[in-house]
Specification:
single chain; 246 residues; alpha/beta; eight-stranded mixed β-sheet; three-stranded antiparallel β-sheet
């Protein structure tokens, strides 16, 4: 793995956050880390691994978005989940979606317009994809940290990703620190980083990705309720989606 690219990715995300709004609420449950500050809300996939001491002492609540987002490169994945949610609170807003011309419908927004016919398609994470994708692709390879029937374990990435023509990557790869290496393995593929964890930071397109697709949370109450009740729900009804390409 190229260390310079690794740190530039994580430093780039955290540096893009310039908000000093204090975090007033933070919760972890239902599959999502939720952070609220400055009248906005951000989410990221909840990855509950805290075997390594966190970079920031104390609670997330009370930190500014800028301070919390600085830990997005943390190897304490619970902390990194909150850090990415803080970054998304600052970056994933309807105003920025409009400013960057990234507005789109949320239904399979990360596959619309892509030609899968005869292609080998890789999934990093068990993403749903679309009926067209599964019908037209020559082969679909799913790599998953917790494999379901038919999935490959994610340790097969080194062997399988270089043969793919298109690779769809879950945004949680930012949190678990696999994204930089996945991008390297997919240098000859069209790459899409997608999911509610993805920050609307155009710099990701300079890191070797061809598309980023995610969402902004405008229904703060729904996000907090989902986390508080540990109810696993799709968040796409909580706000608008975005799609940004090179």
């Amino acid at each position: 793995m190229n260390c310079e690219k690794f740190y530039s990715l994580y430093n780039g995300i955290s540096s893009a956050v310039d908000s000093d709004a204090p975090i007033v609420s933070a919760d972890f449950g239902g599959g999502w880390a939720v952070v609220c500050a400055g009248g906005r809300c951000g989410i990221a996939m909840a990855t509950d691994c805290d075997s390594i001491p966190p970079m920031c002492e104390g609670d997330t609540v009370g930190l500014t978005l800028r301070e919390a987002a600085a830990a997005v490169g943390s190897w304490n994945f619970r902390e990194a989940s909150f850090a990415l949610a803080a970054a998304n609170c600052a970056l994933n807003t309807p105003e920025r979606i409009k400013l960057l011309g990234a507005e789109c419908d949320h239904d399979t927004h990360y596959t619309n317009g892509l030609d899968f016919k005869g292609k080998t398609v890789g999934f990093v994470g068990h993403l749903k994809g679309s009926d067209t994708l599964h019908r037209d692709a020559k082969e679909v390879i799913i790599l998953e940290r917790e494999p379901k029937p038919g999935d490959y374990p994610d340790s097969a990435a080194e062997l399988l990703l270089p043969k793919c023509d298109i690779v769809l990557i879950t945004g949680s790869a930012i949190i678990n620190k696999t994204l930089p290496r996945v991008i390297e393995l997919c240098e000859n593929a069209y790459t899409v980083l997608t999911g509610p964890s993805v920050p609307l930071w155009p710099g990701l397109l300079d890191m070797g990705l061809d598309m980023i697709a995610g969402m902004a949370v405008t229904d703060e109450a729904a996000a907090l309720s989902c986390a508080a009740q540990s109810a696993r729900k799709s968040p796409y009804s909580w706000g608008p989606s975005f799609r940004l390409t090179k």
